[in-house]
Amino acid sequence: MAGLNKVMLIGRLGKDPEVISFENGGKKMTVSLATGERYRDRNGQWQEQTEWHNIVAWGNLANDIDEKRRTYAKGDLLFIEGKIRTRQYQDAQGVTKYITEILAEKMNLISKSGQSSEGYQSGQGNQSYTQNTQQQSTAASAAQSNDESSSQGQSTQHSSSGNDDFSDKNEEDDLPF
User: Fold this and answer.
1) Under a CB-based contact definition with an 8 Å cutoff, are residues 114 and 75 in contact?
2) Are 105 and 82 a contacting pair, CB within 8 Å?
3) Could you tell me if 84 and 7 are in contact, meaning their C-beta atoms sit under 8 angstroms apart?
4) Could you tell me whether strands 18-21 and 27-40 are parallel, antiparallel, or unpaired per DSSP bridges?
5) 144 pLDDT band (50/70/90 cuts)?
6) What is the pLDDT of residue 174?
7) CA–CA gap between residue 101 and residue 107 (Å, rounded)
8) If you write DSSP's letter for every residue of 103-163 in order, what string do you get?
9) CB–CB of 60/107 below 8 Å?
10) pLDDT in tens, 64-105
């Protein structure tokens, strides 16, 4: 059976990473990651929902964290890419328990705790993206109007993108609209 098991998360660490060393020299890193989203409920009130993820890393990634080549701390904003795994174990009373973990393959620091992260704080990502997009389009409009006003004295006008393939040449196109 073919399939894809891929997880990409952006969130804040809930604690400092813990590394366990085994007798055979292998290492296992564990940490919790909080992801959140904001949405409006039926009554129009903003709600926040936080999901907690158990992150596990083995091998070189765990070794780098243990040897401080990568330093992560509680509150840091990270991008984590990996696979989702569910495993089972028996507790002291013999009851079978299940746990779902993210097997991390990549961990990239976005910002340290306390630093600005451009909208990734408390579900503000979409609002920040919208604001940045509006600012960029306003700047692009201003640049385009400056280009047009400065090129009025010239005999030919070029498009604001600088690409001659899209300049005004009074050619008929084959587009149906």
Assistant:
1) yes
2) yes
3) yes
4) antiparallel
5) low
6) 59
7) 15
8) EEEEEEEEE-TTS--TT-GGG-HHHHHHHHHHHHHHHHHHHHHHHHHHTTTSSS---TT--
9) no
10) 999 988 899 999 999 999 999 999 999 999 999 999 999 999
Distance of alpha carbon 109 from alpha carbon 119, whole angstroms: 15
pLDDT, mean over the chain: 78
**Predicted pLDDT of residue 173:** 54
CA separation for the pair 128, 119 (Å, rounded): 5
Q: Strand pairing of 96-111 and 77-90?
A: antiparallel
Mean pLDDT of all residues in 129-156? 47
Select from 47, 60, 52, 1 the least CA-distant residue to 31.
Answer: 52
Q: Which tokens go with 68?
A: 């401080």
Cα angle at 137 between 131 and 141, to 5 degrees? 145
The alpha helices in 32-124, defined as continuous H runs, are: 59-66
Name the pTM for this structure.
0.62
- Smallest CA-to-CA distance from 161 within 174, 148, 171, 170 is with 148
